[in-house]
Amino acid sequence: MSSTILVVEDEPAIRELIAVNLSFAGHKVLRADDVGQADTLIRAELPDLILLDWMLPGMSGLAFARRLRADNRTRLVPVIMLTAKGAEQDKIDGLEAGADDYITKPFSPKELMARIKAVLRRRAPQLTDDMTEVAGLILDPVSHRLTGNGLALNTGPTEFRLLHFFMTHAERVFSRTQLLDQVWGDHVFVEERTVDVHIRRLRKALEPTGHDRHIETVRGSGYRFTREVTL
Length: 231
Ligand code: CA
Prior knowledge:
The structure is a single chain. The protein has eight helices and twelve strands. The protein is an alpha/beta fold. Strands 2-1-3-4-5 form a five-stranded parallel β-sheet, with helices on both faces. The protein is elongated. The two termini are 37 Å apart. The model has no long low-confidence stretch (mean pLDDT 91). Bound molecules: calcium ion (CA).
């Protein structure tokens, strides 16, 4: 399970310790020491998870967490707050601001990794190795196999990732920009119509078992993967 993780922490020693551990675990690490830098990095590439220090120079981590939740683009990105404070009220404030979890300094790298894994499993199941099943369609991220009603289906790597995201986020409408953020990640030079091309290929790949009907075009909005097909 490899993800892109943004670390927003102004203390260099702590930031590097975290970054080294994340890299060692196979994650791609983006580093920022304040909210301004974090904003610049997020504009270029939407991370899969943000580790956010509470006490930052300028805008606080708490205020930034609130802003991330209010912004349509960053709304779904899991956030773990790093805090030196142990007070109950601070933890409540952090969770109310939209943080998914918090971890109190000092923490062990082992604890940090366990928290990250738990939050990703809960909030971003498309990044985990868990098998997914919807209406007879089974996707296995480990073996990279896809079957529909027991029949093997072939997709390209991008269609496979796209389908994985859809299956783990069924019934929700996603715009082309959101899909680029979620499935392509670093997409500064990718055009929106690229999404349509891959949707077409994905539907074609799912046609043999009729599962292509689960992918709905929502006019003016984007695409939605439905659990049940209405005829
Ligand atoms: Ca700090």
